């Protein structure tokens, strides 16, 4: 029988003494470990960090961590080294906002790319997608996000001032390659207005039927955008 004079421990080792807590109170009881993983703090930390990655929740983070731990020499240690090397070497390009190991980045240094055409994207992931498609041979400008009143993302928090400065240095065309979301289109309209005084030609990517897409599966917004953007053959 428990001695009422002895205070219960504030931190429980989950492998041994699992406190009886109503499920609804779990996670709200301060000082009580609610994880069910019988592992050390290093492994807990690994899982917590993995769970912050996009597409990984706590469950898939535990599975990923277990694969890493089982393949210590083949996967865990090389991954740790690669992450440390990347963290030490990675730079944000001072010109376009791309991520590379050099600044200006390799795309900005490439003399074969047209410096008079700028493609504006929200994120480096969008730049990578366009490079994979191999459709653009100009330079990029990464905004670092999209305008969002809800999230408090204002033009000052994006790389908009550096875009306008680059355009003033001699750019013939700015291609707005924003996402087809409310935030992306709000950003595109803002940039269109902000770039008007410079007199530069501003274009945006077409919206419509995706390659390989069937009309029957498209939503009304995509179909109406495709109709508006129709062109003669
Ligand atoms: Zn760059």
Describe the structure.
With about 230 residues, the chain is an alpha/beta fold. Among the domains are: about 40 residues, Helicase, Ruva Protein, domain 3 (Orthogonal Bundle); about 120 residues, Dna Topoisomerase Vi A Subunit, Chain: A, domain 2 (3-Layer(aba) Sandwich), CATH 3.40.1360. The protein contains 8 helices and 6 strands; from the N terminus they run αααββαβαβαβαβα. It has a 4-stranded parallel sheet with strand order 4-3-5-6. The longest helix is centred in the middle third of the chain and has 18 residues. The N terminus is likely disordered. Bound molecules: zinc ion. The site of zinc ion has 8 residues, from helix 4.
CATH T-level fold name of the domain at 110-228: Dna Topoisomerase Vi A Subunit, Chain: A, domain 2
In N-to-C order, the SSE pattern is: HHHEEHEHEHEHEH
Q: Give the helix/strand class.
A: alpha/beta
The major sheet is characterized as: 4 strands, parallel
CATH class identity of the domain at 110-228: Alpha Beta
- Output the strand order for the largest sheet: 4-3-5-6
The number of distinct β-strands equals: 6
